[in-house]
Amino acid sequence: MSFFEVEQATTRLNRSELAVPGSSPEFFEKAAKSEADVIFLDLEDAVAPDDKEKARENIIQALNDVDFGNKVISVRINGLDTHYMYRDVIDVIEKGGERLDLIMIPKVGTAQDVYSVDMLVTQAENSMKRKKKIGFEMIIETALGMQNVYEIATASKRNESLHFGIADYAASTKAKTTGIGTQNPKYSVLTDPDKSGKRDVVWSDMWHYPLSRMVIAARAAGLRPVDGPFGEIKDPDAYESSANRAAVLGCEGKWAIHPSQIGLANKIFTPPEEEVTKAKRILEAMEEAQKQGKGAASLDGRLIDLASVRQATVMVQKAELINKK
Ligand code: GLV
Ligand code: MG
Known about the structure:
Bound molecules: glyoxylic acid, magnesium ion
Order of helices and strands: EHEHEHEHEHHEHEEHEHEHHEEH
Mean pLDDT: 96
Oligomer: single chain
């Protein structure tokens, strides 16, 4: 290990993160009763400019009145380049009581963006003598944000997670797509011809690089990487495939922009029972080996060492968190 210690952010379940527009209070109760791990009440892109003030009021009322149970509650504020943002922060903290857990900052471009919001949140928290410190989730969804992703990830002690905002990221990089999180068949390669001259088109994942880059920065900073939205709400198979590749890369969860996506995300980001059992067996086998003064052991014909222990520990801790819920 490096001598540099990566401090881990507050541990929370973040398998599914449900987006709920602040301008649609009729959805709040249903969201509160859903199986989502995290709910973010949106003041940004799902809310039309004329509805911003009312959406803010709706959210403040919900923070005071709706029983969200043990869910993690976040509010997505408007961007730092808008005139709504300072009041989003101040009103939500001054009038929303203690229920709010996180603030989601969209379109973060630089570490200074995070620093500025931290300054505002700190002042508002202190003036309200708030007991619970608000954490930050940041959406990486611009070329600038991706370029500065590690500095952003390490810009504040409040930081908890990075989210891949695929729709705005596509717009910012001028990627050739109009879908949200879908693929473009042109991002593909042709295989060499086989004996009969036949060639196959092999699709690649056009989001692999930015998503990986964000996952690395998040993990290097001790934060949760979370995959963003998938727009085809009538295509659960494609959602699963998109969520699976994010899970394989190390993401902790994915957004649900429709309630039907919550269960899919929870399923995909919950480690399967057999993997948890295997992880527990790895820990037992290594404990036994260490008692005998050995640094490695074998389990089911495979070598296991301290790296296997670290992987197994992560898996078992996640399973415990899920069981507690
Ligand atoms: C989310 O905000 C996105 O732009 O994908
Ligand atoms: Mg966005």
